[in-house]
Amino acid sequence: xxxxxxxxxxxxxxxxxxxxxxxxxxxxxxxxxxxxxxxxxxxxxxxxxxxxxxxxxxxxxxxxxxxxxxxxxxxxxxxxxxxxxxxxxxxxxxxxxxxxxxxxxxxxxxxxxxxxxxxxxxxxxxxxxxxxxxxxxxxxxxxxxxxxxxxxxxxxxxxxxxxxxxxxxxxxxxxxxxxxxxxxxxxxxxxxxxxxxxxxxxxxxxxxxxxxxxxxxxxxxxxxxxxxxxxxxxxxxxxxxxxxxxxxxxxxxxxxxxxxxxxxxxxxxxxxxxxxxxxxxxxxxxxxxxxxxxxxxxxxxxxxxxxxxx
Length: 310
Prior knowledge:
InterPro entries: Metallo-B-lactamas, NDM-1-like, RibonucZ/Hydroxyglut_hydro, ST1585_MBL-fold. The structure is a single chain. The chain is an alpha/beta fold and about 300 residues long. It has one domain (about 10-245): Metallo-beta-lactamase, Chain A (4-Layer Sandwich). About 35% of the residues lie in helices and about 20% in strands. It has helices spanning about 55-65, 80-85, 85-95, 105-110, 115-125, 205-220, 235-260, 265-275, 285-310, and strands at about 10, 20-25, 35-40, 45, 75, 100, 140-145, 150, 155-160, 170-175, 180-185, 190, 195, 225, 230-235. The protein has a seven-stranded mixed β-sheet with strand order 1-2-3-4-5-6-7, with helices on one face. It has a six-stranded mixed β-sheet with strand order 8-9-10-11-14-15. Strands 12-13 form a two-stranded antiparallel sheet. Helix 6 packs antiparallel against helix 7 (about 235-260) and helix 7 (about 235-260) crosses helix 8. The protein is globular, with a radius of gyration of 18 Å. It starts with 9 loop residues before the first strand and ends with a helix. About 50% of the residues are buried. The mean pLDDT is about 95.
Protein backbone atom coordinates (compact mmCIF):
# COMPACT_ATOMS: atom_id res chain seq x y z
CA UNK A 1 0.00 0.00 0.00
CA UNK A 2 2.81 2.43 -0.83
CA UNK A 3 1.43 5.81 -1.86
CA UNK A 4 3.76 8.11 -3.77
CA UNK A 5 2.44 11.65 -3.66
CA UNK A 6 3.64 15.21 -3.64
CA UNK A 7 2.30 18.24 -1.81
CA UNK A 8 -1.36 18.87 -2.59
CA UNK A 9 -1.96 15.53 -4.33
CA UNK A 10 -4.32 12.77 -3.21
CA UNK A 11 -4.79 9.09 -3.91
CA UNK A 12 -7.36 6.41 -2.98
CA UNK A 13 -6.28 4.14 -0.16
CA UNK A 14 -6.00 0.73 -1.76
CA UNK A 15 -8.15 -1.88 -0.04
CA UNK A 16 -10.45 0.61 1.70
CA UNK A 17 -13.44 1.76 -0.34
CA UNK A 18 -14.21 5.49 -0.45
CA UNK A 19 -11.11 6.45 1.53
CA UNK A 20 -8.52 8.90 0.21
CA UNK A 21 -5.23 10.23 1.55
CA UNK A 22 -4.17 13.81 0.82
CA UNK A 23 -0.58 15.06 1.12
CA UNK A 24 -0.83 18.25 3.18
CA UNK A 25 2.59 19.42 1.97
CA UNK A 26 4.01 19.96 5.44
CA UNK A 27 7.63 20.89 6.13
CA UNK A 28 8.63 20.62 2.45
CA UNK A 29 8.62 16.82 2.82
CA UNK A 30 6.47 14.70 0.52
CA UNK A 31 3.81 12.66 2.35
CA UNK A 32 4.88 13.89 5.80
CA UNK A 33 1.41 15.20 6.56
CA UNK A 34 -1.41 12.75 5.78
CA UNK A 35 -5.00 14.01 5.77
CA UNK A 36 -7.70 11.38 5.24
CA UNK A 37 -10.99 11.98 3.46
CA UNK A 38 -13.76 9.40 3.81
CA UNK A 39 -16.36 9.91 1.09
CA UNK A 40 -19.03 8.16 3.14
CA UNK A 41 -22.74 8.89 3.28
CA UNK A 42 -21.80 11.59 5.78
CA UNK A 43 -18.32 12.62 4.56
CA UNK A 44 -15.49 13.30 6.97
CA UNK A 45 -11.99 14.79 7.00
CA UNK A 46 -9.67 13.11 9.51
CA UNK A 47 -6.85 15.46 10.54
CA UNK A 48 -6.33 18.74 8.70
CA UNK A 49 -2.63 19.55 8.44
CA UNK A 50 -1.30 22.87 9.66
CA UNK A 51 -3.73 24.90 7.58
CA UNK A 52 -0.92 26.53 5.61
CA UNK A 53 -1.84 24.55 2.48
CA UNK A 54 -5.56 24.40 3.02
CA UNK A 55 -6.43 25.51 -0.50
CA UNK A 56 -5.04 22.26 -1.92
CA UNK A 57 -7.17 20.29 0.57
CA UNK A 58 -10.24 22.25 -0.57
CA UNK A 59 -9.35 21.30 -4.15
CA UNK A 60 -9.02 17.64 -3.16
CA UNK A 61 -12.50 17.67 -1.61
CA UNK A 62 -13.85 19.31 -4.77
CA UNK A 63 -12.26 16.67 -6.98
CA UNK A 64 -13.58 13.83 -4.83
CA UNK A 65 -17.01 15.41 -5.21
CA UNK A 66 -17.70 16.63 -1.68
CA UNK A 67 -19.45 19.98 -1.95
CA UNK A 68 -19.28 22.86 0.51
CA UNK A 69 -22.67 21.98 1.95
CA UNK A 70 -21.99 18.23 2.07
CA UNK A 71 -19.03 17.75 4.42
CA UNK A 72 -20.45 16.46 7.72
CA UNK A 73 -17.44 16.05 9.99
CA UNK A 74 -14.02 17.56 10.68
CA UNK A 75 -12.14 15.17 12.96
CA UNK A 76 -8.66 16.04 14.20
CA UNK A 77 -7.02 13.18 16.07
CA UNK A 78 -5.58 15.69 18.55
CA UNK A 79 -4.98 19.40 19.00
CA UNK A 80 -1.34 19.60 17.85
CA UNK A 81 -1.29 22.07 15.00
CA UNK A 82 0.25 19.72 12.44
CA UNK A 83 -2.96 17.68 12.83
CA UNK A 84 -5.57 20.29 13.77
CA UNK A 85 -4.24 23.63 12.52
CA UNK A 86 -6.65 23.68 9.60
CA UNK A 87 -9.79 22.80 11.58
CA UNK A 88 -11.07 26.36 11.92
CA UNK A 89 -10.39 27.14 8.26
CA UNK A 90 -12.30 24.03 7.21
CA UNK A 91 -15.17 24.97 9.51
CA UNK A 92 -15.36 28.38 7.82
CA UNK A 93 -15.53 26.87 4.33
CA UNK A 94 -17.86 23.96 5.13
CA UNK A 95 -20.75 25.45 7.16
CA UNK A 96 -22.56 22.17 7.86
CA UNK A 97 -19.52 20.29 9.16
CA UNK A 98 -19.28 19.59 12.88
CA UNK A 99 -15.84 19.53 14.50
CA UNK A 100 -15.02 16.73 16.92
CA UNK A 101 -11.75 16.34 18.82
CA UNK A 102 -10.74 14.49 22.00
CA UNK A 103 -12.29 16.32 24.93
CA UNK A 104 -9.11 17.90 26.29
CA UNK A 105 -8.40 19.43 22.89
CA UNK A 106 -11.65 21.38 22.56
CA UNK A 107 -10.48 24.50 24.39
CA UNK A 108 -7.33 24.67 22.25
CA UNK A 109 -9.33 24.79 19.02
CA UNK A 110 -11.90 27.28 20.33
CA UNK A 111 -9.18 29.62 21.63
CA UNK A 112 -5.89 28.58 20.02
CA UNK A 113 -3.73 31.37 21.48
CA UNK A 114 -2.00 29.27 24.14
CA UNK A 115 -1.52 26.40 21.71
CA UNK A 116 0.06 28.72 19.14
CA UNK A 117 2.42 30.16 21.75
CA UNK A 118 3.41 26.68 22.93
CA UNK A 119 3.91 25.46 19.38
CA UNK A 120 6.09 28.43 18.46
CA UNK A 121 8.22 27.78 21.53
CA UNK A 122 8.54 24.09 20.71
CA UNK A 123 9.10 24.19 16.95
CA UNK A 124 11.06 27.46 16.81
CA UNK A 125 12.05 28.36 13.24
CA UNK A 126 9.82 25.58 11.90
CA UNK A 127 6.86 27.92 12.57
CA UNK A 128 7.40 29.22 9.03
CA UNK A 129 5.62 26.05 7.84
CA UNK A 130 2.53 26.75 9.93
CA UNK A 131 -0.32 29.24 9.61
CA UNK A 132 -2.27 31.09 12.25
CA UNK A 133 -5.25 28.81 13.06
CA UNK A 134 -8.78 30.15 12.83
CA UNK A 135 -10.79 29.61 16.04
CA UNK A 136 -13.53 26.99 15.81
CA UNK A 137 -16.91 28.44 16.93
CA UNK A 138 -18.04 26.93 20.21
CA UNK A 139 -21.39 25.89 18.75
CA UNK A 140 -19.63 23.86 16.03
CA UNK A 141 -17.36 21.73 18.23
CA UNK A 142 -17.72 19.02 20.88
CA UNK A 143 -15.35 16.72 22.75
CA UNK A 144 -14.87 12.98 22.36
CA UNK A 145 -14.07 10.28 24.92
CA UNK A 146 -13.20 6.63 24.55
CA UNK A 147 -16.07 4.54 23.22
CA UNK A 148 -17.79 7.43 21.42
CA UNK A 149 -18.87 6.77 17.84
CA UNK A 150 -18.89 9.10 14.85
CA UNK A 151 -21.83 8.37 12.57
CA UNK A 152 -20.84 8.43 8.89
CA UNK A 153 -24.24 7.14 7.77
CA UNK A 154 -23.12 3.93 6.10
CA UNK A 155 -20.34 3.21 8.63
CA UNK A 156 -18.95 4.63 11.86
CA UNK A 157 -15.72 5.46 13.62
CA UNK A 158 -15.01 4.27 17.16
CA UNK A 159 -12.96 6.55 19.42
CA UNK A 160 -10.02 5.17 21.43
CA UNK A 161 -8.29 7.57 23.77
CA UNK A 162 -4.50 7.39 23.41
CA UNK A 163 -2.95 9.96 25.75
CA UNK A 164 0.66 8.75 25.61
CA UNK A 165 1.50 11.25 22.87
CA UNK A 166 -0.59 14.03 24.45
CA UNK A 167 -3.61 14.15 26.80
CA UNK A 168 -5.83 15.35 23.92
CA UNK A 169 -4.85 12.49 21.59
CA UNK A 170 -6.93 9.59 20.24
CA UNK A 171 -6.96 7.07 17.43
CA UNK A 172 -10.06 6.03 15.49
CA UNK A 173 -11.18 2.58 14.33
CA UNK A 174 -13.53 1.94 11.42
CA UNK A 175 -14.68 -1.65 12.06
CA UNK A 176 -16.28 -2.44 8.67
CA UNK A 177 -13.06 -1.90 6.70
CA UNK A 178 -11.03 -2.70 9.84
CA UNK A 179 -8.83 0.36 9.47
CA UNK A 180 -7.24 2.28 12.35
CA UNK A 181 -6.39 5.95 11.96
CA UNK A 182 -3.40 5.87 14.28
CA UNK A 183 -2.64 9.60 14.56
CA UNK A 184 0.74 9.48 16.38
CA UNK A 185 -0.14 6.54 18.64
CA UNK A 186 1.93 4.09 16.58
CA UNK A 187 4.80 6.48 15.95
CA UNK A 188 5.82 7.58 12.47
CA UNK A 189 6.11 4.83 9.88
CA UNK A 190 8.63 5.85 7.23
CA UNK A 191 8.08 3.80 4.04
CA UNK A 192 11.44 4.75 2.53
CA UNK A 193 13.31 2.87 5.25
CA UNK A 194 10.46 0.53 6.32
CA UNK A 195 10.71 1.41 9.97
CA UNK A 196 8.82 3.11 12.79
CA UNK A 197 10.30 6.19 14.46
CA UNK A 198 9.10 7.48 17.83
CA UNK A 199 7.43 10.84 18.21
CA UNK A 200 7.81 12.20 21.75
CA UNK A 201 6.99 15.92 21.87
CA UNK A 202 7.00 18.02 25.02
CA UNK A 203 5.49 18.67 27.42
CA UNK A 204 3.27 15.64 28.10
CA UNK A 205 4.80 12.65 26.30
CA UNK A 206 4.47 9.56 28.50
CA UNK A 207 6.37 6.39 27.61
CA UNK A 208 4.33 3.95 29.72
CA UNK A 209 1.07 5.28 28.32
CA UNK A 210 2.47 5.17 24.76
CA UNK A 211 3.16 1.47 25.23
CA UNK A 212 -0.41 0.93 26.45
CA UNK A 213 -1.73 2.84 23.44
CA UNK A 214 0.27 0.58 21.14
CA UNK A 215 -1.14 -2.47 22.91
CA UNK A 216 -4.66 -1.12 22.32
CA UNK A 217 -4.00 -1.04 18.57
CA UNK A 218 -2.46 -4.50 18.78
CA UNK A 219 -5.62 -5.80 20.50
CA UNK A 220 -7.79 -4.54 17.64
CA UNK A 221 -5.57 -6.41 15.14
CA UNK A 222 -6.80 -4.31 12.18
CA UNK A 223 -6.28 -4.84 8.46
CA UNK A 224 -4.88 -1.38 7.79
CA UNK A 225 -3.11 1.41 9.64
CA UNK A 226 -3.52 4.99 8.45
CA UNK A 227 -0.60 6.86 9.96
CA UNK A 228 -0.77 10.60 10.56
CA UNK A 229 2.61 10.93 8.85
CA UNK A 230 3.60 9.23 5.60
CA UNK A 231 0.22 7.64 5.01
CA UNK A 232 -1.37 4.18 5.06
CA UNK A 233 0.01 0.65 5.07
CA UNK A 234 -1.23 -2.88 5.66
CA UNK A 235 -1.09 -3.93 9.30
CA UNK A 236 1.44 -6.48 10.51
CA UNK A 237 1.60 -7.48 14.20
CA UNK A 238 5.38 -7.19 14.10
CA UNK A 239 5.02 -3.49 13.37
CA UNK A 240 3.60 -2.82 16.85
CA UNK A 241 6.43 -4.76 18.47
CA UNK A 242 8.88 -2.73 16.44
CA UNK A 243 7.23 0.49 17.56
CA UNK A 244 7.36 -0.54 21.23
CA UNK A 245 11.07 -1.34 20.97
CA UNK A 246 11.72 1.95 19.19
CA UNK A 247 10.08 3.95 21.97
CA UNK A 248 11.83 2.10 24.79
CA UNK A 249 15.22 2.32 23.08
CA UNK A 250 14.76 6.01 22.27
CA UNK A 251 13.93 6.95 25.87
CA UNK A 252 16.85 4.88 27.14
CA UNK A 253 19.21 6.57 24.66
CA UNK A 254 18.20 10.01 25.92
CA UNK A 255 18.48 8.87 29.55
CA UNK A 256 22.00 7.51 28.98
CA UNK A 257 23.13 10.62 27.14
CA UNK A 258 21.83 12.86 29.95
CA UNK A 259 23.82 10.80 32.49
CA UNK A 260 26.93 11.03 30.31
CA UNK A 261 26.77 14.74 29.50
CA UNK A 262 25.02 16.17 32.56
CA UNK A 263 23.55 19.05 30.56
CA UNK A 264 20.18 18.94 28.83
CA UNK A 265 21.08 21.42 26.08
CA UNK A 266 24.13 19.33 25.28
CA UNK A 267 21.87 16.27 25.09
CA UNK A 268 19.55 18.00 22.64
CA UNK A 269 22.48 19.22 20.57
CA UNK A 270 23.91 15.69 20.44
CA UNK A 271 20.73 14.28 18.94
CA UNK A 272 20.33 17.25 16.60
CA UNK A 273 23.84 16.62 15.27
CA UNK A 274 23.13 12.90 14.94
CA UNK A 275 20.06 13.73 12.84
CA UNK A 276 22.33 14.87 10.00
CA UNK A 277 22.50 11.22 8.94
CA UNK A 278 18.73 11.07 8.39
CA UNK A 279 17.96 11.06 4.66
CA UNK A 280 14.21 10.48 4.42
CA UNK A 281 13.13 14.06 5.15
CA UNK A 282 14.84 17.36 4.61
CA UNK A 283 17.73 18.34 6.94
CA UNK A 284 15.79 21.22 8.47
CA UNK A 285 12.94 18.91 9.46
CA UNK A 286 15.35 16.24 10.72
CA UNK A 287 17.00 18.73 13.09
CA UNK A 288 13.68 20.08 14.33
CA UNK A 289 12.33 16.56 14.87
CA UNK A 290 15.41 15.54 16.87
CA UNK A 291 15.21 18.65 19.03
CA UNK A 292 11.49 18.30 19.71
CA UNK A 293 11.63 14.58 20.49
CA UNK A 294 14.66 14.76 22.76
CA UNK A 295 13.16 17.68 24.73
CA UNK A 296 9.95 15.68 25.13
CA UNK A 297 11.82 12.72 26.61
CA UNK A 298 13.85 14.95 28.94
CA UNK A 299 10.61 16.48 30.24
CA UNK A 300 9.17 12.99 30.71
CA UNK A 301 12.26 11.86 32.65
CA UNK A 302 11.98 14.90 34.92
CA UNK A 303 8.34 14.05 35.62
CA UNK A 304 9.14 10.42 36.40
CA UNK A 305 11.86 11.53 38.82
CA UNK A 306 9.52 13.98 40.55
CA UNK A 307 6.84 11.33 40.93
CA UNK A 308 9.32 8.84 42.41
CA UNK A 309 10.29 11.38 45.05
CA UNK A 310 6.73 12.04 46.20
